[in-house]
Input
Amino acid sequence: MKNTDFENPLGDEAECTLVLQDNEWKFEYCDHDRQIARAIVFDDSGFFYFVRAVRDDDFGKSTLIETSGGGVEQNEDLTKAVAREVQEELGIVVDIVCKIGVVSDYYNLIHRHNINNYFLCKVASFGEKHLTKDEIECFHLSTLKMTFEEAVKEYEKCSNSKLGKLIANRELPILHRAKKIMDSIISC
Output
């Protein structure tokens, strides 16, 4: 879906599209698609905000870094979904700068195809998080504030688990694209 309300400063050809496979778990079948809205969030000082998840579930035991985001609700616009998810998970109200792109990937273990719509978002204000019971008790979500370089290192460190590899493969190219967009905005 093309979002013309939020122009990518690098031009239309700069919107990233990736299709990734799950090479960590055997493919048996895929029984559902999930539309997801995700955000690369940054502030005026150039820091980025991510979610830390500590998991011990069917995917295994792992500590992960991930962008804020989640499922798009029925009849919900992608931009409203990304703003809602960031506010719920990070407690941050954002201004959407542009759409970065779409990453299609799979979680073979749970037979799901993910359609991840990524947006570059700037912090407008900070407030309260609104985490679900599962986000608190099962995933132990917390907020990470880091530089670009620290985030890249953290993704690489967290890719020591199967799920961590899938997430890093999906998110590192988007993070690099976001940094390129930010650099182009600053140089204008």
